[in-house]
Amino acid sequence: MIKYLGSKRLLTSHITAAFSDLPEGARILDVFSGTSRVGQALKRAGFDVCSNDHNAYAHTIARCYVEADRAQWIAPATDLIEALKDTPPKAGWFTETYCKNARFFHPDNGARIDAIRNRIEGMELEEPLRSIALISLMEAADRVDSTTGVQMAFLKQWATRSLKPLQLRVPELIDGRGQSSQKNALDAAQTFTGHAAYLDPPYNQHSYRSNYHIWETLVRWDQPEVYGVAQKRIDCKTEKSNFNSRPKIGEALQEVIEALNVERIVVSFNNEGYLSKDAIVDMLSKRGDVHTVELDYKRYVGAQIGIHNNKGKRVGKVSHTRNKELLFVVDRDGRKGQKAATSARRT
Questions:
Q1: Quick one: DSSP state of residue 87?
Q2: How many helices (H) and strands (E) does the chain have?
Q3: Which domains does the chain have, with CATH numbers?
Q4: Backbone angles phi, psi at 236, to 5 degrees
Q5: What DSSP string runs through 225-270?
Q6: Among candidates 90, 125, 93, 124, which has minimal Cα distance to 108?
Q7: Residues in CB range of 282: below 8 A, 6 or more apart
Q8: Which of 82, 146, 170, 238 has its CA 20 to 30 A from that of 25?
Q9: CA 342 to CA 120: how far, in whole Å?
Q10: Beta-sheet pairing, 196-199 with 179-181
Q11: Which of 162, 121, 173 has its CA nearest to residue 140?
């Protein structure tokens, strides 16, 4: 999987445990799926998962890992990736933008990305095979990037990994079927029917599309207008989410919660986010007793490195390297909600 700020990779066992008492095959909506790590864990646990995200790159990840059934797609995917490996490099817009105007990838790898992506575009592949191919390319590019993990800036000197040749691999597909959608959070909540929902909304001003704008462009392949040193997509500036706004996130999350017609809701949030623990409990308490699980967690890499000025000189000290990830569990049957929270806490 790609490097991803906010990924719940280390928390998936706790989150999955919060749904473990639901019947096998229970339908669960992941409203803000991101890398779909939680959706993948729930799929492996035998649930019928619907992963939703409004970003195209996240929707593509979900199509690959949640929607695609390994038994059906592993053979054609393997053949396709093997064929794509032989694509001769040819530099184009991607290389010019992200390897020369910016330095996220070495130009040699940029030329490979350009050529392979153009070849995928010309194949007119059916879904989810097209998404499998795109994720193979995205993950290959991620392994040779020259960043600290987000695409807000690139390293001054080439990272050692960026000098290695880009190599495609077949994604590790998962047995079983799932669903994926590319809707805004409220639409996804309003149209879903099932047993439960998992919500992991943005918790501060940082937009995931801004953090991973290159993946959005790699999937869309739309050669957008770009701006700034990082060559961000212009829609990172023009399209703003209420979930990245301190004044608006509360109302936005409340609307999504009220729109969900499910028995159980599990919300993941950070204690350094825009919303307080009490505010989230208040939103959920209208559905029943809310049970909270606090999990100690390592802060994101930027917070561990410290504060630096534009010249790269450290100008501030690291205040703390740990924070709390909070899981809020509410079920229409209060006893089941308490049991689910206890399971999440013990895992």
A1: P
A2: 15, 11
A3: 14-68+175-202+243-347 (3.40.50.150)
A4: -65, -25
A5: -EETTTTEETHHHH---GGG-TTTHHHHHHHHHHH---SEEEEEEE
A6: 90
A7: none
A8: 170
A9: 47
A10: unpaired
A11: 162
Q: Are 145 and 137 in contact (CB under 8 A)?
A: no
Reduced to 3 states (helix: H, G, I; strand: E, B; else coil), residue 313 is coil
In tens, the pLDDT along 297-336 reads: 765 545 444 554 444 555 556 544 567 899 999 999 999 9
100-136 tens-digit pLDDT: 999 999 999 999 999 999 999 999 999 999 999 999 9
What is the pTM (predicted TM-score) of this model?
0.92
Residue with tokens 């020369």, as numbered in its chain: 100
Written as six digits, the tokens of 59 are 């929707």
Residue 22 near residue 198 (C-beta atoms within 8 A): no
- Between CA 93 and CA 105 the distance in angstroms is 13
Judged on CB neighbours under 10 Å (0-12, 13-18, 19+), 13 is exposed
